[in-house]
Amino acid sequence: MAARAPKVVCLPGDGVGPEVMLEATRVLQALGIGFEEHPFGGAAIDSWGRPLPQPTLEACRSADAVLVGAVGGAQWDGLPERPEQGLIRLRKELEVYANLRPAVGDGVDLLIVRELIGGLYYGGSGELPDGRVFDTMVYTRPEIERVARRAFELARTRGGALLSVDKANVLETSRLWRRVVTELAADYPDVELKHGLVDSVAMNIVMRPADFDVLVMENMFGDILSDVAAGVTGGLGLAASASLGDSSPGIFEPVHGTAPDIAGTGRANPTAMLRSVAMALEHGLAEPTKARALEAAVAAALAEAPTPDLGGAATTREFGDAVLSNLQVPVS
Fold first, then answer.
1. Does residue 2 register a pLDDT over 50?
2. Which of 23, 174, 322, 329 could hold 166 in an S-S bridge, CB 3.0 to 4.6 Å?
3. What are the structural domains, with CATH classification, of the chain?
4. SS3 assignment, position 223
């Protein structure tokens, strides 16, 4: 019996999301990858009354990879459920606990592995009778162990160096984090493990980004430092991400926002979305050769047809055209 063809579920989202997703689907077509689109985020609130409709969730569960556009916008402020809550729920439902954020450029090639579905963003919160408010950061040994193992394994495929980032001089969760990662290091004798405090690491990413290889950290630290690393290497408009679990489909998405000021103008840079497609090919569809081909095509397009944010004049479609003209589709 013939193997089932891979399927990508595309969630265009809001703002510039549908515009850059269109360029992604053109690439998927050129590579012979099947896909289908479903409502998500603010657009799904408008049509379904909630940001993650059940049919969308079920489609994601049955996919090989999920490609997500940016979500959100002022028009959905104040609603009981914001567009961003759909993304948070999708991550939790698919149990994509390891967020991969590469930052590449000008001699820099680092990878941040962020724990994605635990910590402060998923802990308890509330308000006390005296007016104080609180958010709770909670981590368990298994949550730390699984993302740390993923980081060790990725470090093995790169330069063999792993930096674990924490705030062990202040936080009890960080002290547990450091203990667990240190214990796991015995299983990876080929990886050099070091520890760093998040504030010091933040400074050094700005000052000496080329010193880093793979970094692993908890959710909030990863949220912040991955954007710092993106800023050092060209900005969020170029930054892709992959969110991976153990058995569920991964989520692949650009990390920029919906950019409502340029939505509909044809000025959006689709680089981050197309790089997310490359990550989906590598980590979700087991197509590393096609991933490398797409990465090379995007690099060529950045040189030939830069968009306005990079000092050029190419439209979103013209950039996509440049990618397609440079895409050397491997013969399977």
1. no
2. 174
3. 1-96+245-332 (3.40.718.10), 99-238 (3.40.718.10)
4. helix
